[in-house]
Design brief:
160 residues; globular; alpha/beta
């Protein structure tokens, strides 16, 4: 069995999408959970800011994926102002699953059932290599800030 076949199904779907987009970074399965940015940074030996967290919000009744640096907390009021929205709130777990097809703590920036509007935190541009979840709480893949913006079609916005 090759390393891709050994991955969980959700992560294999992420691999398919990444391959289709021409990304060369490989999905890695880590032995421990990387559900939080701090856990992921410890497991990968990188700065917490290099973790590209996938956070789902509801912006005026529509899902909004915010790819934020692990060192940032999203200021929803400021983000709503910057995006011209009335209200942004954290999505409930069932809303996260409906929008992304993935679970909280393992949400990838791609491989969703349908396109999700995406914001990419400008703070992620400070790191040459980012790490994003690959569909489960213990799978990740490397990419650059430019690749993240490109593969998500995201708008770059300061989130805090």
């Amino acid at each position: 069995m090759d390393e891709v076949e050994a991955l969980p199904e959700r992560s294999r779907r992420v691999v398919e999408v990444l391959d289709g987009l021409g990304l060369t970074g490989r999905v890695r399965e880590l032995p421990a959970s990387t559900r939080t940015a701090a856990e992921a940074a410890r497991a990968l030996g990188c700065e917490v800011g290099a973790i590209a967290n996938s956070l789902v919000f509801i912006a005026d009744d529509a899902p909004l994926l915010v790819m934020t640096s692990g060192r940032h907390r999203v200021d929803v009021d400021l983000l709503a102002l910057r995006l011209g929205r009335k209200r942004i709130r954290r999505a409930e777990p069932k809303e996260v699953r409906a929008a992304t097809g993935q679970v909280i703590g393992g949400g990838a920036p791609v491989a969703h059932p349908a396109p999700v509007e995406t914001v990419v935190d400008t703070g992620l541009a400070e790191y040459p290599t980012l790490w994003a979840a690959a569909g489960t709480p213990n799978t990740v893949f490397p990419l650059t800030h430019g690749e993240l913006v490109e593969i998500t079609g995201g708008v770059e916005v300061a989130v805090n």
